[in-house]
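step: validate -> pass
step: tokenize input -> pass
step: predict -> running
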Amino acid sequence: MGNHYFSKNILRLESMRNGGLGWWATLPDNIVFLVLRFFEVKELVKLSLCSKLLYTFINYEELWEYIAYRNVDPHTVVKQTTWKKTVLQDKYSDVPIKVEYYSDILFNSSHFEQVDITPFCKEGNIDKRSNLSLEQFQEEYEKPNIPVIITDVVQNWPAYKKWKNIAKEYKGVTQLGNYHAIKTYEMKQENFYTFSEHFKLDDHPQVFEDENGEPFPTTPDDYEIPKYFAADLFKYLGDKRPGWRWVLLGAPKSGSTFHQDPDMSSAWNGVLSGRKKFIFYPAMHIPPGVTRNGDDFTSPPSVLGWFLEYYGKTEIPYECVVNPGELLFVPSGMWHMVLNLDETIAITHNYVSEVTLPVVFDYLKSQKYEMWKRFNKNLPEELTDFVDDIWDCSDGFKLGG
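step: predict -> pass
step: emit ->
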């Protein structure tokens, strides 16, 4: 907002905001945009004619992205190159006008598109290993809860070569959204590539498709779960198991803000094409920009915004770039953020092993009791006894990292 305060027309700008927004002028810009989401398309078009400032707000692309998810038939092939045109389909004429107004939200939308992400491509400090035995993996990385990149798995998958082309050729409907979105939206997968190529956003969408939804034709032999993650104890939840495997299609500069994987599970992420930047903080270390409200946490809304504000200016315990053909182990409970440096395709699974079973067991018992009861009932007796022994001889399982 610095440009606003140094503007020679500051009084006129304030008057324009008050007159252009009416009683909405008491609301910050981000709340105005949230309110506008509740309007129907015809109402937004009419509202945009009421004042220059409302015209400016209603031309915000992220607003039309939200409306497009809600209104556009997922089976439609999109030819337009903006969200607004996608929704309106040339039903309404629109003559652009120039409006002098300063807003961080509106500025970020165009600024992030021009950000050079080269400074964020630092390889980092996470080990890259090959020919790693299961015992080595558990002792050196899984038990101390430390991330590691495994370099000799993904390149042996048929999917490593096969899926690069299938992803773009597939004509079916897939699920699109952002990691922190409350819900995802159906969309033809070919539209995803139209959006990632042409649309200007400060927070690009990416596909988070449950593999069971078959976002493009696959066979069971396209890839196999690496030996390090084969003993997945969440299988004992049966058909009550929450989502645990996904195919991720990411546009450049898309990603996910800081989060911990669900139910204290661990994860692995195998990259088939493109590069992914990961930032890690230990479970008990709340990352910069993440705020705590009681038992809940709020992450920064924009991945690029976090990098611009904090990267290179604060200590980062672990960071890395995962290249095509590499696989990353994501430890249980660790905070992590992901930035797609290129157009990416990846496979990710969440899992629970004997190493992390005690902390997952305790989390479910305290936070998701019904799920814990089913898990506890179905687990083999020797595993429940194993958890009891762990807790009896210590003051609790503690995450390393």
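step: describe -> The first strand starts at residue 128 and ends at 129.
step: cleanup -> pass
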